[in-house]
Amino acid sequence: MRVTFLGTGAAGGVPLYGCGCTACKRAGNTPRCVRRPCSALVESGDTRVLIDAGLTDLHERFPPGSLDAIVLTHFHPDHVQGLFHLRWGKGLRIPVYAPPDSEGCADLYKHPGVLEFRALAKFEVFTLGKLTLTPLPLIHSRVTFGYAIESLAGGRFAYLTDTAGLPPRTLAHLQSWRADALALDCSHPPRTGPANHNDWTLAAEIVSSIAPGQAWLTHVGHQLDEWLLHTAPVLPAGTTVAMDGDVIEVAGRPGHP
Question: For residue 66, what is the domain's CATH number?
Answer without folding.
Answer: 3.60.15.10
